Amino acid sequence: xxxxxxxLPTLLLVVSLHAQAAPDAEMVVTDADRQHxxxxxxxxxTPPETEADAAAWVRTPVDAFIRHAQESExxxxxxxADARTLVRRLYFDLVGLPPTPEEMERWSLAIEKSSGTASxxxxxxxxASPQHGERWARHWLDVARYADSNGMEGDHDRPNAYRFRxxxxxxxxxxxxxxxxxxxxxxGDEIAPDNPKAIAATGFLTAGHSxxxxxxxxxEKLRYRANELDDIVxxxxxxxxALTLACARCHDHKYDPIPSRDYYRLMRIFNSGDRKxxxxxxxxxxKAQRAATATWQAEREAAVKQRDEWMNHARPPLxxxxxxxxxxxxxxxxxxxxxxxxxxxxxxxxxxxxxxKNELGTATADYIxxxxxxxxxxxxxxxxxxxxIEKR
Length: 392
Prior knowledge:
- The protein is an all-alpha fold.
- Helices cover 57% and strands 0% of the residues.
- The protein is elongated and about 115 Å long.
């Protein structure tokens, strides 16, 4: 049987003749979108009613919400904690540390005698302690993605990052109003440029990862900068607006009412500044410090110049003595030392001088040894002037 082979094309090129789809229309934020829960102001809420037998258990409005939720699930409150358990809970919740044996004894006895008054006094004491800010600052520092290094591949240390950490701690301990707390972190250098704490607060914007490259690759620098700005916008959205703004970097948000144009408007705002190490002081303090530094520098340079010029004039008569003393200390034969002393221009002497170049080098201390008593007193006076200025 003869089989016939068909000669078919090995490659088929298919060209679609369908018209290209039109791009989606730009997102329009409607009045309904503006009712998104994250945009709405806080509203006063009336505590729910509870059963009559719960009145003794409900001591605060918060208790009413808890008891109402328990009742809806047919649950009963747990028995009241004993004094020692309450003391430990308050310490761990408010300062993150256990009470000392003495504190435990003092407060548990006080609560057993007068539970309401004593426990309130303990809460006030713990809220006023420095450890309270240290305990609770860590939660905001997590939101602000605080770290002591840059992250990413080039994870360099940030020796001054702790300034932002300390700001958050002091803000809690000093009862800084929340609106000020937020505004300083976003624009403290603009709002309160004379306040070092407001300057330190802007560490919120630079607490995230950073990649600094010192290479002539403009495209790489722009890419890293865009990623840094995206980190700032994303953290601001999540931490302060309850919104995932980073989704709008590439397209209008699929769920939250955030168009891409709003994302880039925010990015433009943050792009008006850059990372920089600055003194934590007011402009007037910085100006005064720089003026004082300039005055100090001028005084030091004048004193150093006076000292060194005097020594330059005192040296020439001592050159031979200093050289002879240096030659005498060499690990060389007597003949070689004599050649260096008596005929320094001899080729052999020059060879020796090159071999002992380091040993024959001189410093100011070598000349001081040969100064007269009067010269030494004057030199000491000039040196003390320089030292006194440098200590300032």
